[in-house]
């Protein structure tokens, strides 16, 4: 009998149990090949089918036309922080960035190594906290920027863009969607690049999905080291060198699981319902819990809240853990509590959390 807790970790994060079970069942003998998928050549027919299927599932789910490449790269989303400006800004070209938290700050720091970077919007308050995503009227965009970079969901702050800003004419959006990729359907057209580390909404760590429009690939500079040039990976369908085979195979299974549920429309409905339960527990606590996040920017993926005192927060996290609700501690830079409830987090786990929140507030309020 396996012991499974409700896992609220921000990433690596919980994966769909049916996916884990399927991997377990075929782990030592993949589809009668007599070997594991992680022992197979990345050029074998078995792996090629997995690779192609995972790419086509992304295309299908996001409604991507032939004008987009889907790439599977290594190095985490953090590697994209420098690879994007290296390819597109080398020589001091301009890009605008929206500064909405830790990950956006890291992306800006790397971009400054290559280009002329302007912070077009910044949601940091006097206490150093980020509690909203700047909207269009709060942005100061440059007409001659190559792109506008945003973080669609701020994993640590607990904020999310529900309506994407529009880039200045002549430029395009670049989005770090590491913590909310595929939580719902959206129009990819304004995005020149979308990237996401897999370990939250898509699968295990080890692969980063990079979706790039073909005209953007053509803007990339030549003469970069082979492995950091998008042109290398796009031309070889992410098989220039050995790709992260096991994470890609797992991501493929997660995408099939989402499709089996009914696709992204159903996924969005479930995600909104789950987030509604946690925000509901905050709102109905008579002020015991509080959300530090502006209403229009509250994340459906990472719900953050405060208890009346840091001591009560520690007690909350410890007692929740003892009841099988794991990983609820807020990031060390912001404190408080955080429930990461990505696509794969089961509804029952969120219901158990909401019940626990209610009971804890009555006991301690
Ligand atoms: N962007 C966001 C929004 C993230 O949440 C994270 C990881 N928590 C990263 C980037 C960095 O990803 P990686 O660890 O894959 O480099």
**Residues in helix, %:** 25-40%
Instruction: Please identify the structural class as seen in this structure.
Output: alpha/beta
Q: Which overall shape is indicated by the principal axes computed on the Cα atoms?
A: globular
Overall mean pLDDT score?
Answer: 97
Main-sheet strand order equals 2-10-9-8-5-3-4
Helix-strand topology string: EHHEHEHEEEEEEEHHHHEHEEH
What does this structure look like?
- The chain contains 10 helices and 13 strands.
- The chain has helices at 17-25, 45-62, 76-88, 102-111, 214-219, 230-235, 245-261, 264-283, 310-322, 347-364; strands spanning 6-7, 68-73, 94-99, 116-122, 147-151, 153-154, 159-160, 172-176, 191-197, 208-213, 302-305, 325-326, 337-340.
- The strands form 4 sheets. Strands 2-10-9-8-5-3-4 form a 7-stranded mixed sheet, with helices on both faces. A two-stranded parallel ribbon has the order 1-12.
- It has 365 residues and is α/β, with parallel strands linked by helices.
- Helix 4 (102-111) links the parallel strand 3 (94-99) and strand 4.
- Helix 2 packs across helix 7.
- The mean pLDDT is 97.
- The longest helix has 20 residues, at 264-283.
- The structure holds 4'-deoxy-4'-aminopyridoxal-5'-phosphate.
- Residues 11, 76-78, 103, 151, 155, 176, 178-179, 197 line the site of 4'-deoxy-4'-aminopyridoxal-5'-phosphate (PMP).
């Amino acid at each position: 009998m396996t012991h499974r807790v409700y896992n609220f970790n921000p990433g690596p994060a919980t994966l769909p149990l049916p996916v884990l079970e399927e991997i377990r069942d075929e782990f030592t003998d993949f589809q009668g090949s007599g070997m594991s998928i992680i022992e197979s050549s990345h050029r074998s027919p078995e792996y090629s089918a997995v690779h192609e299927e995972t790419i086509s599932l992304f295309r299908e789910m996001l409604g991507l036309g032939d004008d987009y490449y889907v790439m599977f790269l290594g190095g985490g989303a953090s590697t994209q922080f420098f690879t994007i400006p290296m390819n597109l800004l080398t020589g001091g070209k301009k890009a605008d960035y929206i500064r909405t938290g830790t990950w956006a700050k890291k992306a800006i720091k790397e971009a400054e190594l290559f280009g002329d970077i302007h912070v077009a919007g910044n949601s940091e308050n006097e206490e150093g906290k980020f509690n909203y995503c700047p909207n269009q009227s709060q942005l100061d965009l440059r007409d001659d920027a190559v792109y506008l970079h945003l973080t669609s969901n701020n994993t640590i702050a607990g904020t999310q863009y529900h309506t994407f800003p529009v880039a200045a004419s002549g430029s395009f959006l670049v989005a770090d969607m590491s913590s909310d990729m595929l939580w719902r359907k959206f129009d990819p057209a304004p995005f020149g690049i979308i990237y996401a580390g897999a370990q939250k909404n898509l699968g295990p760590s080890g692969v980063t999905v990079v979706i790039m429009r073909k005209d953007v690939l053509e803007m990339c500079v030549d003469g970069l080291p082979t492995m950091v040039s998008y042109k290398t990976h796009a031309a070889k369908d992410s098989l220039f060198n050995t790709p992260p085979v096991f994470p890609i195979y797992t991501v493929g299974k997660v995408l099939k699981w989402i499709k089996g549920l009914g696709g992204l429309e159903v996924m969005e409905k479930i995600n909104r319902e789950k987030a509604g339960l946690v925000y509901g527990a905050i709102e109905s606590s008579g002020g015991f819990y509080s959300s530090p996040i502006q209403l229009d920017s509250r994340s459906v993926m990472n719900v953050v809240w405060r208890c009346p005192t840091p001591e009560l927060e520690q007690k909350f996290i410890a007692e929740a853990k003892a009841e099988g609700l794991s990983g609820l501690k807020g990031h060390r830079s912001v404190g408080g509590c955080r429930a990461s409830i990505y696509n794969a987090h089961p509804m029952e786990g969120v219901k158990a959390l909401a019940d626990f929140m209610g009971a804890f507030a009555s006991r301690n309020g």
